[in-house]
Structure formats: C-alpha cells, structure tokens
Amino acid sequence: MEENIEEIKLQIFHMSQDDPKKCTARKLAKFGYATLIKRLSLITYSPVLLDPFSPKVLSKDDLEDVIKHGLLVIDCSWVTVENAFYLLRTKKKVIPRALPYLVAVNPVKYGNAFQLSTLEALAGALIILGYRKQAEKILRLYKWSGNFLIMNEQPLLAYENTATSEEVILAQAEFV
What we know:
Structural class: alpha/beta
Distance between the termini: 25 Å
Number of strands: 5
Strand order of the largest sheet: 2-1-4-3-5
C-alpha cells in the first residue's frame, strides 16, 4: 500500500480527568506528535472527531476532511465519556466517526474491545486512513504499545484495505 508523505494533524481535547503518569495524550503532545487543546474555542473548524457514539465508522472516505481539518480525539475518563462527546458535538462543528472493533493493550484497559487509550485510538485511525508509518511512529512512545499492532493485526489489515465505511463494517463483521 502506498504511504503518504504528509502527516495527519492530530488534536486532543484534553479534559484533565486521568492520572497524568498514565496519560498517553500528554506524552503525544510532549513529543510533538499531537496538539493538546484545553478549551473548546481552540479546536479547529470541522475536524473529524473519533466518537464511539457515532453511527458512521471512520474510513478512507473521510480522508479529505482529515487532511484539511485534522483528526480530533477527546481525552477524558471513561466515566464521563458520554457527556464529553455530547458537549463537543453540541458546541463545535465536528465530523463524528466511530472506530471499528479494536482491542486495547494499554495497562488500564488491556483486553477490552473499543476502550482504547488516546494513543491507541489515534494509531488505529491513522492505519485505517492509510498512514501506517505515522501510526507506528506514535506507538513507539510506550513499550506496551507495540503490542497494539500485534493484538489487532488481522482487523487492522482488513480495515486498511477498505475504502468506505460500509466496507469497514463488513470487514469488522469477521472479528465481532
């Protein structure tokens, strides 16, 4: 598969609700891989938001919007996740997209499907969009994160070879 030269702009709406020592979002920002945003007003216009409550799944169909406006995640506690996404969707123009089935390997949510760390969510999204090298680069931040590619090898390969949201859903059916 052809690899893109430009990197995707990664944004993280950070709500400061987790343990700073375990926060993958802070580390992504510290190393310059993502922009940490603490105020809604600083989020760029119309980014693609990784939103677990979205009825539509992320696919290469979203690539033009992602290249133009960036990829946005919310870093918050899983306890407040519904309220956080509701707040963002009602206050900002975003393009919500869910991630398909992937399994977490981070020490807090290890083995749980769909409950990814910020780092894992961004890496999965980048691979789906055809930016595997950028995903592999950000995954080097933690010793455990390389296992994300191993644990999710089959689904990620399947999603990477799709073009539309419908194709991603069909590929996901093999793993759920």
